[in-house]
Write a structure and sequence with these properties.
Structural class of chain A: mainly alpha
Mean pLDDT of chain B: 83
CATH architecture of the largest domain in chain A: Orthogonal Bundle
Largest interface: A-B, 18 and 19 residues
Shape of chain A: globular
Oligomer: heterodimer
Structural class of chain B: mainly alpha
Largest sheet of chain A: none
Number of helices of chain A: 9
CATH topology of the largest domain in chain A: Rna Polymerase Sigma Factor, Chain: A
Low-confidence stretches of chain A: 98-102
Order of helices and strands of chain A: HHHHHHHHH
Number of helices of chain B: 4
Radius of gyration of chain A: 19 Å
Order of helices and strands of chain B: HHHH
């Protein structure tokens, strides 16, 4: 992990404001999946429309970062910006898709899921490497206990308990 | 249910989360297994209809690929059965006593599923004795059996 990746959102915004180009790269990297997920899962934009919105979002973040009042609130600010630009993109294409309002309303639950997923993802990064590794293998890569046991060289009979302990830590982290 | 019902167990939530993840893996496998088997059966019939001069069914690459697919899915089911039995065993050892028999029943069912899936790998025409896939399926079957037996023995 680079030193920039370890910065809080607020610290990263401050470095961006100071004109650090590496900080900008890190900011884009940190929020790119989030923005893309809102476009594709939240608003179900087509890939080319999502890419346009993605470019537009980060261009506006770059040019309007000074207007952000609370540096720690950069994520909700980016989310709001992304949603507005997604609506603009849909409005541009609404002549072809008149069911716009209904579609957007239906997908509103997805926003909460996206936010929750990213909150969990961030919390996972605060756990130790061992927990990150075992949770990733089981929940993201769908590996079996035996595969995890063989690859991490830990007894197969202890895997489920280890995962459960890591999940307890994760819950504590999220609740704190 | 076993983990969720065990209020005094700190890691119950983590066990329940794993159970849900395993459940999510199982549903598409059941569908894939039926589909792969139907597909292989169709290919076997086609090969039989177009048999060689000696009357023996024609084995071609398409058939072999379909047979292989028909073996891969039960292999995954067997591994999943071993995982479910292992998780049920952990739950049964730590849960509230009122739920222990339910955990044992889950482990026994998972072991039965692993055994059935291993058998499907064994009888697949594309799998020969000594094949690593068969060995893997049997390891899963054995692991599931051992987990279920351990739990059943503990509560008898």
């Amino acid at each position: 992990m680079s030193s920039l990746e370890a910065l809080t959102d607020a610290e990263l915004v401050q470095r961006c404001r100071a004109g650090d180009p590496e900080a900008w790269n890190t900011l884009v990297e940190r929020f790119s999946r989030y923005v893309y997920a809102i476009c594709v899962k939240g608003f179900r934009l087509k890939e080319e429309d999502a890419e346009d919105v993605f470019q537009d979002v980060f261009t506006r973040v770059y040019t309007h970062l000074d207007k952000l009042r609370d540096d720690a609130a950069v994520r909700p600010w980016i989310a709001q910006l992304t949603r507005r630009l997604c609506l603009d993109a849909i409005a541009r294409g609404s002549r072809e898709q008149p069911a716009l309002e209904h579609d957007v309303e239906e997908s509103s639950d997805d926003f909460a899921e996206i936010d929750e997923a990213f909150a969990v993802r961030e919390a996972v990064t605060t756990l130790g490497d061992a927990c990150q590794e075992i949770l990733d293998r089981f929940f993201a890569q769908d590996q079996s206990y035996r595969t995890i046991s063989a690859e991490l060289e830990i007894p197969a009979g202890t895997i489920a308990s280890r995962i459960a302990r890591c999940l307890r830590k994760l819950r504590e982290e999220l609740e704190s | 249910m076993v983990a969720r019902g065990s209020k005094e167990w700190d890691d119950a939530g983590g066990i329940a989360a794993q159970a849900l993840a395993l459940q999510a893996r199982a549903a598409p496998l059941a569908h894939a297994d039926a589909e792969a088997w139907e597909d292989a059966l169709g290919a076997l019939r086609d090969a039989g209809a177009g048999g060689g001069d000696d009357g023996a069914p024609r084995r071609d690459h398409v058939l072999e690929r379909k047979l292989e697919r028909a073996a891969v899915v039960p292999l995954e089911i067997a591994a999943l059965g071993a995982d479910i039995a292992a998780l049920a065993a952990v739950a049964g050892e730590r849960c509230d006593g009122a739920y222990r028999a339910d955990a044992a029943a889950a482990a026994a069912l998972a072991a039965g599923g692993a055994r059935a899936a291993a058998h499907l790998v064994e009888v697949n025409l594309g799998v020969q004795e000594g094949d690593e896939r068969l060995a893997e399926a049997r390891r899963s079957e054995q692991a599931a059996d051992e987990a279920a037996e351990r739990l059943l023995a503990a509560i008898r």
